[in-house]
Specification:
Two copies of one chain form a homodimer. By secondary structure, the first copy, chain A, is α/β, with parallel strands linked by helices. Chain A has 15 helices and ten strands. The first copy, chain A, folds into two domains: 170 residues, Rossmann fold (3-Layer(aba) Sandwich), CATH 3.40.50; 202 residues, Dehydroquinate synthase-like - alpha domain (Dehydroquinate synthase-like, alpha domain, Up-down Bundle), CATH 1.20.1090. At the A-B interface, strand 1, helix 8 and helix 9 of A face strand 1, helix 8 and helix 9 of B. Strand 1 of chain A pairs antiparallel with strand 1 of chain B, so a sheet runs across the interface.
Amino acid sequence: MNNFIYHSPTKVYFGRGYETKIGSLLAERGFRKPLIVYGGGSIKRSGLYDTVLASLKEAGLSWAELGGVQPNPLLALAKEGIARFRAEQCDVLLAVGGGSAIDTAKVIGLGVPYDGDVWDFWCGKATPKAGIPTTVILTIAAAGSETSQSAVITNEDGMLKRGLNSEFNRPLFSIMNPELTYTLPAYQTACGVVDIMMHTLERYLTLPGEVELTDRIAESLLKTVRTYGPIAIAQPDHYEARAELMWAGSLSHNDLTGCGRASIFINHKIGHELSAKYGTAHGASLAIAFPAWAKYCYRSNIPRFAQYAVRVWGCEMDYAKPEATALAGIAATEDFFRSIGMPVRLSDIGIGEAEIDDLASRITAGGKNVIETYIPCGKQEFAEILRLAL
Amino acid sequence: MNNFIYHSPTKVYFGRGYETKIGSLLAERGFRKPLIVYGGGSIKRSGLYDTVLASLKEAGLSWAELGGVQPNPLLALAKEGIARFRAEQCDVLLAVGGGSAIDTAKVIGLGVPYDGDVWDFWCGKATPKAGIPTTVILTIAAAGSETSQSAVITNEDGMLKRGLNSEFNRPLFSIMNPELTYTLPAYQTACGVVDIMMHTLERYLTLPGEVELTDRIAESLLKTVRTYGPIAIAQPDHYEARAELMWAGSLSHNDLTGCGRASIFINHKIGHELSAKYGTAHGASLAIAFPAWAKYCYRSNIPRFAQYAVRVWGCEMDYAKPEATALAGIAATEDFFRSIGMPVRLSDIGIGEAEIDDLASRITAGGKNVIETYIPCGKQEFAEILRLAL
């Protein structure tokens, strides 16, 4: 077991009705004016927007707003948020939505107390030293940003999609009412399912070998999502299924599933470039990346891929040919992704051989970066992985 | 799934060597003078005491001390600690030890800023409104107090052993180096194993029915402890086994294994009275309580006890007679406790029928309290449970 530091201080209010208490939850912490960060019209159509404003009013709070956050959120809007936060003299961020709204809020939270360009933190020029707290009302089980230290943003200048881990990114509290996800379309629910599984797998299918408690927790999470994902897609208002997914989404990315292990996030790197260049939904991009990556490198750790196949997918262990079991687990994952309507090949989203070189180049910052996983992966290796996804 | 609030903000430094950094970890948070709370001579014999002082000196900190904490720690010593903390003008608590040292520190932490008698909080006369932060260097995998909101103390006046949950009880940070548990005797290691399992089972064997993710996480924890407990007992310096137990101990009681479920802690109530009256080690008292309680009430939830038997102990499901499976799980637990050297009957610790009435009376505050579990348990029901433990 590797040494690790675990710190997941976000307070979670989980279940029906907590969104109606947002005003008092902010007021009792001394906040007076949140900047509400949200996406398109869905929270207005669902009535959540009105619920939030009513609760803020009741608690005697004022507010400012930043709407229009898009999937794969853009830096320019976050910068607009920084300016608005300052001009409106807000004192806390309130993201109402999923990973895109939350991550935009996090970027604003780091940008407000910083004199320079907030992108400095994402391109490695500076390290955050302070942050305005982000609070959350979650509407999608997917990104795990509601408890994570991660924030991903896309810089329009070059369409660079980059993630940043910082303790200042941890939300102060997150409200998670599974009912708020009832209106999610099936495709987005499925994207969330893949994202949750991949946050876990990027920590699970790594070296060193078994860390039993962490492994079993990761497997618990994968099995739960495997069971309840399809139920939530078939019955969007199935409370228990939505609740299981929502809680799994948070635990998948609050670092619990990685304690004592390395994490790689190599599939996220591939996926980020697909999203940045083609606008592919994040979950869908991961559903394409994973089977290819797994097929490329499973031979480096057959026991682990076999364990995954047996414990998560219920494959029979082939003791004479563990490789067959390992492959069966990868195939089961791919079949599952396809069964919930996800693309699993680049061709499913209209991308062919002609794009491989540029994608591999982008993933490796023009061929400069090598990512250490089972096999050191540079531009050439990523091109080979991408070809397995054709 | 029930609504729940989850908040486990303690920062965990897990692995080799972190105890040598205690000075800088305190200093970087602005603390200048910890009150070090510890037990007998074991941390002096092991060299940990010297390591801690050297680290504090190196960071330019001063300190005061409160040694002599006993298992089932006593209120009088905690009160001495409150006085010393004030007199020495300390600013933070540093517990070096297990649950007894940590809980004593927590009592001091609530008592220092309070004008009245700190016992007020434990007897329900007052609610804590502030607390001095507790920090921890853990030396026993057992109580889970290093991340929990619970603190248990015994008032010598009537030998009342009582627990208190308060957000102010959550340690600020905890250092967990599995190597620091190498010197634990087998009996104490075994007591810890039982304690960890029972913190999980008191949340798992409850109503409502399945909350899949929480259940599977609880089962993960139980299986891990089942596997590594005996290894740690047989090979005290087995790093991986000590590490699995140590992390399981924290996760068993930081509320993760109870999210979305009720928790009962009825076995703890029985155990606390055994400890208070006879000085029985906490884990040993739970090993006696559980089999009796489980046999008394498993019929109220046979599916759940059967799930426990199958998933945790690998029992074969008897689909025609699920009751047989449920009983097999209880028997497997009892056999396991016995196999690691724990008492599983009152007679194992020299207690007979003559004591039953008084014990049942103590558990129910003189017959006044009824604990709602599957079956409402008052004095008569506790007497019946205790008879099953004879």
